[in-house]
Amino acid sequence: MRYHLILPSKPFGVFVSISFRARKCYQHFLALAQSTGVQTTPINHELLHFMKYYTSTTQFNCGIDLHARQMYVCVLDRTGQKLVHTNIKNNDFAYFLKLVAPYRHDLTVCAECMFGWYWLADACADAGLHFVLAHALYLKAIHGGKNKNDRLDSEKIAHLLRTNLIPPGYVYPAAKRPLRALLRQRLASRFRNDLLDHGFLMIQFSVYARPCVNFEQLSKHLVIIQKMVPEAGNVRLLYITDEQWAKSVTVIGPNYDQGKRANNAKIPDQVEFWE
């Protein structure tokens, strides 16, 4: 039987979920991963009780649910009374400043860490507003609920800020961000090239696979990947059988460049020689 190892190429938290076929294989994989030091357990949320929270000292607190083209804003006072609660299209920061003008003298702004928070942090700094970046993962663990939309999320962020329950993230200085982005890109490229050198196939962006004919070969590559992963990397290894691999389906959009890679990723036929 043929086995495959799936893992993301980027070392910064891209994950794929594929089920295991047999319980025996799953137990073997866990034992193998633990013996090589690979993390297989989920985050222990009991640690949240020991993490630090931001303490707000301002009279007014603003929670923002930020998106690429809009942001939902909620401003609360110390008693929890809503003063502003509205959606701002096109992320019009000038309009945002008009809404919070009566409260700017004693206001803290908080937004969840997501892809586009840089501009908001810089704009708040230029406007003289204190900005707090909320850690996305721990924030979700604290206020997670069934009902979720932009309006509710902005209000929850504001309430958590008001009650000193915001897990803070690090607001990276603007002057150092280009250097950090370049370093991350180089680390990701180096890790991706190392995967290719060790015989991995790129199935799609951030997902690589390699055939393993037995568990001994699987353990070998676990050790290799453990040595290659960047210090700030977060890679998930998944094990699937040949039968599961054969059931995978590739969906391609109408404008996809067919010359980049094959429609259906296929393990090379040379592997048959080792079965």
Provide structural commentary:
This protein has 275 residues and is an alpha+beta fold. The protein folds into two domains: 3-41 and 178-250 and 257-274, no CATH class; 53-167, Nucleotidyltransferase, domain 5. The protein contains eight helices and nine strands. A five-stranded mixed sheet has the order 4-3-2-5-6. A hairpin with a 2-residue loop joins β7 (201-204) and β8. It is elongated.
* SS class: alpha+beta
Helix run count: 8
Q: Overall 3D geometry?
A: elongated
Which regions are unreliable across 5 or more consecutive residues at pLDDT < 50? 1-26, 38-48, 270-275
Count of discrete domains: 2
Portion of residues in helices? 25-40%
Question: What would a concise description of this structure say?
Answer:
The protein has 275 residues and is of the alpha+beta class.
Name a few traits of the molecule.
275 residues; five-stranded mixed sheet; disordered C terminus; alpha+beta; 33% helix; single chain; Nucleotidyltransferase, domain 5; four-stranded antiparallel sheet; 8 helices; elongated; 2 domains
Q: Which secondary structure elements does this structure contain, and how are they paired or packed?
A:
Elements: E1 3-7, H1 23-35, E2 60-66, E3 70-77, E4 82-89, H2 93-99, E5 107-112, H3 118-126, E6 130-134, H4 136-143, H5 150-162, H6 177-197, E7 201-204, E8 207-212, H7 215-228, E9 238-241, H8 242-246
Parallel strand pairs: 2-5, 5-6
Antiparallel strand pairs: 1-8, 1-9, 2-3, 3-4, 7-8
